[in-house]
Specification:
By secondary structure, the protein is mainly alpha-helical. About 70% of the residues lie in helices and about 5% in strands. Strands 1-3-2 form a three-stranded antiparallel beta sheet. The radius of gyration is 19 Å and the shape is globular. The two termini are about 30 Å apart.
């Protein structure tokens, strides 16, 4: 738990369950706590210097976000998603992301966040950092949703994207998973920059349909290899 000890400073003087949940959410996202791992109250509480009640409330928040699951008489575990979960994530993404693009109104659009995410992904790909490419890809789609200017929609999709990161940790070939979408994110960005919103929505819909199929295939293979399937 030495890594969590370093996170203690993030709690500041106003340690709350929400701040603890933020730390654990980040650690789950980066794979420090992989899917299926049991979270030890004693070890995590000691590393972060927080009370058991605070930690349990943080666990409850993350369980509500579908990142953790509580098993009776066994404890709290990082969720292992089902294939049906993955399908549902992509149904939600298609509904929300395509609706955001459809509702953008007249150009020009505020695309600085998308530009930064594409640049970040390209840099990570040059460095052969395929995990970084996946992170930048999620950032791209988060920035896309943010174009709607809806705090509720942002909150919903933060939870969806956090669940998606659980999928990434099971897939054994991140390059194969993420590399094909580098150019497709760029194409969506270029189309939005040109002001052709309907074409951008069509590109995004095809992108998400293809990504769903590829992700499900890769996830099923990863579950089979890990013995979770």
């Amino acid at each position: 738990m030495s890594g969590l000890v370093d996170d203690r400073a993030l709690l500041g003087r106003t340690s709350t369950a929400e701040r603890v949940a933020d730390i654990l959410r980040g650690r789950i996202a980066d794979g420090y706590f992989p899917p299926g791992e049991r979270l030890s109250e004693e070890s995590i509480g000691s590393a972060l210097k927080v009370s058991r009640n605070t930690l349990r409330e943080a666990f409850r928040l993350l369980t509500h976000e579908r990142l953790l699951t509580h098993e009776l008489n066994r404890g709290v575990f990082v969720r292992v998603l089902t294939v049906e979960d993955v399908e549902d994530i992509f149904r939600t993404r298609r509904l929300v992301e395509c609706a955001v693009v459809r509702g953008l109104g007249r150009p020009p659009y505020a695309l600085d966040g998308l530009v930064a995410a594409v640049t970040e992904a390209q840099r990570a790909a040059r460095d052969k950092d395929w995990k970084g490419v996946g992170t930048a890809n999620i950032r791209f789609h988060g920035e896309l949703v943010a174009l709607a200017g809806s705090a509720r929609m942002d909150e919903l999709m933060r939870s969806v994207f956090a669940e998606l990161r659980l999928v990434f940790h099971v897939v054994d070939d991140p390059r194969r998973l993420h590399e094909p979408y580098l150019s497709r994110n760029r194409e969506i960005l270029d189309t939005l920059q040109s002001g052709d919103r309907p074409a951008a929505e069509r590109l995004l819909a095809r992108y998400l349909d293809d990504s769903r199929l590829g992700m499900v295939e890769a996830y099923e293979a990863g579950l089979g290899e890990s013995g979770e399937g």
